């Protein structure tokens, strides 16, 4: 018998270098990897969570370098019930590209996919995108929003688990 009642597939999208692999690693292993090594990019992870007494398996896919081509395939989105749309608060360009990522997601994903906007690297002093700008973009597009740090772990649990709760409520 399976050790969970529900299986939710998540995908993580956003520009290269915003911290997608690190968010995945922090959530599944509670670890942070400082060096940037594309070749050991995490591609896939999973973790069990419990919500309202129900055991949920979160199966998480990371783009692992495909974002260089800016065209994540339809197959990647197939069956995804949750998406983390990530930018880097210290890199303006990654915020400016969000609209494109969102268009992509809306074209390829199932209509009820829950999307949370993540402003990652909140531990960094030098920011190029304010919290208010992130919150505004999220509000305009009907997304949930959190700033996280894959380095300190701040809000990483919340990002994945709040999304799971939302998916659960939509069932
Ligand atoms: P990806 O290409 O989006 O998967 O990005 P990575 O997860 O490989 O991270 C890119 C770089 O940013 C790496 O050098 C990480 O160590 C660093 N990084 C990722 N998340 C954070 C964070 O929350 N804070 C800080 N300070 N650095 C981070």
Give unreliable regions as ranges.
Answer: none
> What does the main sheet amount to?
6 strands, mixed
User: Could you tell me how far the N terminus lies from the C terminus, measured between alpha carbons in angstroms?
Assistant: 22 Å
Name the shape in a single word: globular
How many whole angstroms does the radius of gyration measure? Answer: 15 Å
Q: Please report the total strand number as a whole number.
A: 6
- Mean pLDDT rating: 90
Number of helices: 6
Quaternary structure annotation: single chain
Percent range of helical residues = 25-40%
Strands of the widest sheet, in order across it, are 2-3-1-4-5-6
Strand portion, in percent? 25-35%
Give the bound compounds: guanosine-5'-diphosphate
Structural class: alpha/beta
What string, H for helix and E for strand, traces the elements in order?
EHEEHEHHEHEH
How are the secondary structure elements laid out?
Elements: E1 6-13, H1 20-29, E2 44-51, E3 54-62, H2 74-77, E4 80-88, H3 92-96, H4 98-108, E5 114-120, H5 131-141, E6 144-147, H6 156-170
Parallel strand pairs: 1-3, 1-4, 4-5, 5-6
Antiparallel strand pairs: 2-3
Bound molecules: guanosine-5'-diphosphate.
Guanosine-5'-diphosphate (GDP) binds next to helix 1.
What would you note in describing this structure?
With 171 residues, this protein is of the alpha/beta class. Helices cover 33% and strands 26% of the residues. The chain is built from 6 helices and 6 strands; from the N terminus they run E-H-E-E-H-E-H-H-E-H-E-H. It has helices at 20-29, 74-77, 92-96, 98-108, 131-141, 156-170; strands at residues 6-13, 44-51, 54-62, 80-88, 114-120, 144-147. The chain has a 6-stranded mixed beta sheet, sandwiched between helices. Strand 5, helix 5 and strand 6 form a beta-alpha-beta unit. The longest helix is centred in the C-terminal third of the chain and has 15 residues, at 156-170. Belongs to the small GTPase superfamily. Rab family.
